[in-house]
Amino acid sequence: MKRVLVACGNGIATSTVVASKIREYAENAGVIIKTEQCKLMEVPGKGDDYDLVVTTGQFGGQVNTPVVGALSLLTGIGKEATLKEILSYLK
């Protein structure tokens, strides 16, 4: 099982929506994942413990884990490409 850290400004509302969309897409592709949410400012301390970090805002920090920007999962513009990119890291 892959672990995905989803980060937004406050680690509550936006990351909940994005995490749900990622889980649904991965499940439909036959990939089982576990998501957890946090604030963007927590990513540097937590990110290395996950297989992938997905953010809804600008992340300028450094982690050894791949980071995918996923604002498109909120706007809908480029959503499919972002989901495919996320899935490519989880297979």
Task: Quickly list its features.
single chain, 91 residues, alpha/beta, Rossmann fold, 4-stranded parallel β-sheet, 4 helices, 40% helix, globular
CATH class: Alpha Beta
Give the uncertain stretches in residue-range form: none
Taken from the alpha-carbon principal axes, the silhouette is globular
- How much of the residues is beta strand, in percent? 15-25%
Largest β sheet strand count, sense and barrel closure: 4 strands, parallel
Q: Biggest sheet: strands side by side, in what order?
A: 2-1-3-4
- Summed over residues and divided by their number, the pLDDT gives a mean of 96
The CATH architecture term is 3-Layer(aba) Sandwich
Order of helices and strands: EHEHEEHH
How far is the first residue's CA from the last residue's CA? 10 Å
How many structural domains does the protein architecture include? 1
CATH superfamily: Response regulator
Rg, Cα atoms, Å: 12 Å
Organism: Trichococcus palustris
Keywords: Transferase
Protein name: Phosphotransferase system eiib component type 2/3
Pfam families: PTS_IIB (PF02302)
